Amino acid sequence: MAITIYDVAEEANVSMATVSRVVNGNPNVKPETRKKVLAVIERLGYRPNAVARGLASKKTTTIGVIVPDASKTFYAELSRGIADIATMYEYNIILSNSDKRQDREVELLEDHLGKQVDGIIFMSDSITPQLREEMRRANVPIVLAGTLDAEKEFPTVNMEYEEAAYLATKKLIENGHSNLAFVSGPFTRDINRLCKKVGFEKAHEEAGFAVNPEFILETDNTYDDAYNHWCEMLERDNAPTAILVSNDELAVGILNAIRDNKFSVPDDFEIICFEHSLLARAVRPQLTSVVIPLYDLGAVSMRLLTKLMNKEEVEEDKVMLPYRVEWRASTKEKNPLA
Amino acid sequence: MAITIYDVAEEANVSMATVSRVVNGNPNVKPETRKKVLAVIERLGYRPNAVARGLASKKTTTIGVIVPDASKTFYAELSRGIADIATMYEYNIILSNSDKRQDREVELLEDHLGKQVDGIIFMSDSITPQLREEMRRANVPIVLAGTLDAEKEFPTVNMEYEEAAYLATKKLIENGHSNLAFVSGPFTRDINRLCKKVGFEKAHEEAGFAVNPEFILETDNTYDDAYNHWCEMLERDNAPTAILVSNDELAVGILNAIRDNKFSVPDDFEIICFEHSLLARAVRPQLTSVVIPLYDLGAVSMRLLTKLMNKEEVEEDKVMLPYRVEWRASTKEKNPLA
DNA sequence: ATGAAAGCGCTAACAC
DNA sequence: GTGTTAGCGCTTTCAT
């Protein structure tokens, strides 16, 4: 049996209440007593039982993080931002992968709530009505990170994907292209369908020419799928000459398809993508990218969550983080966005 | 106040013991009663409190995972393997980053133990004596994943890095090289210093020529550091012509240094690296790699941990997973290792 | 400054 | 098959 607060109390000739005070840094303890208790704690190797503490205090200093797939760099980076701030505020993290399955998401939400987490950071492709319902029922704060909440109902930390897509597309158009493609991950992801794609379209609209629906490519978000899609594209005689890509991995697939087929980037094709992970810097030419502030998305989400858990006043719980564009060699001109 | 088992009991006109039985799937409940209770649970939206359950049962169905940096693909992949098997056995995961700081590792171990995790999976560059002491004191099983335990004291799941390094180096020597380099991450990582480096040296010994200590390069494990190191190397007139590299990221740094300086891989330099993440496939030429079975390392570790937590008989708690070599274009011949 | 005692919500004997 | 009851190891009033 492990050492309990009771053992310490007995050994130190004080009540368990006093031991509890010492452990919790309550100032109402005579320095002498504190010292004595601390010595016993050390000697006995007492380690407070967080589960008992959680039951008594109704706080677990643990938060839940639900993420589509923590092994993807996108979410891995984001989670690291969460983790660092969580550490700073002394929270532990229960991390779960939903694999984007809505039933899993609901299950995990239930599961985390059952574990009495003090708050949840949630990432998902889309907040479905059922999920929304479930989230409303939660008795702890939930923050959406890098996730679109179409109803603007929950606290959210995100960036202006639509604007970024619009500006990037506009830049490509200014570079002389009139035949552009948008290669995306699944449109089940709201950010792809409702933000990036829309920005892409708006730039077209403004420029006065139409988006060719054949050149809106929905992939399964893998390197290989993008590679194959673009190999097929290259066989057409009207292949687009500029490409806005949803993320690094897809962009590298396209880049390699282009280069393996002896075409050149940026001479034959210009590419701008989202994310800018190491992958975008490691390939040649390096990829011009809208840099998604992944780490900060996570860090700010967690910071917001701490405030919510503390019931602090929060001036604004829909936060948009700034992004920047990293101009590299997959585009011809290295001018900043106008 | 949330709904408790007591509320359900009252509402269903049964005792809380019966509700507990229903919730826990105990067969000793009349089907009729079960149905009634289930209906009330549903109606009231009762959700069992896992903290209370944990206190009463002394099991939390939560395990701790301590990892140097979950945002690195290496550990992200590995953690995903852990997570999937954990889900399968209905465990939650508390995930923490140690950033390889020994004091943090000790702290986190204490912290997780305090949270009453049922077991721990630990990843680290090196098991120091203090850490070892701490791990011995733990009252729950601990499995080391992808981590060298020089004393072979704890359950471990890993692969034969030394052998792989030896075979890869041997292959490079067979390809005609006599001037080879080993570019490594920090030697504070046991696997680098005690396994890969040793394999590299053994192949030299066997071939009858000496390792040039100047060509054992210890980097800080970043793309940029490797890139810079190799740029300097290229200015020497005796630069090595074959390179064994500790991981993909470093290898890509070297590859780019070589190519940016107008040399060719594999004509001027041959490269074999460890890991084979997407990065190794995305660059041109693609990198010949010793494929580390990251996902499986995690999955097998977790499976082993479940057995240990269940106090099942385990035939062997030092597991070595098989690896394979992916022959790509950074080496001249694509023959399998003899 | 310290102690006594009542829970927190559940599990697990034990009794019927 | 079901109920009663004693904890699990803490926190937290409330006294003193």
UniProtKB/TrEMBL annotation, chains A, B:
Under the heading CDD domains, the entry gives: HTH_LacI, PBP1_CcpA
Q: What is the lineage of its organism?
A: Bacteria, Bacillati, Bacillota, Bacilli, Bacillales
Fetch the SUPFAM superfamilies from UniProt.
Answer: lambda repressor-like DNA-binding domains, Periplasmic binding protein-like I
Record keyword Membrane present: no
A GO molecular function for this record? Answer: transcription cis-regulatory region binding
The gene for this chain is: ccpA
Write down the SMART domains for this protein, in alphabetical order: HTH_LACI
One Pfam family this sequence matches: LacI
Q: Give the protein name, as stated in the record.
A: Catabolite control protein A
Domain HTH lacI-type, chain residue ranges per copy? 3-57
Q: Which UniProt keywords apply?
A: Activator, DNA-binding, Repressor, Transcription, Transcription regulation
Its function, per the record, reads: Global transcriptional regulator of carbon catabolite repression (CCR) and carbon catabolite activation (CCA), which ensures optimal energy usage under diverse conditions.
Identify the species of origin: Savagea serpentis
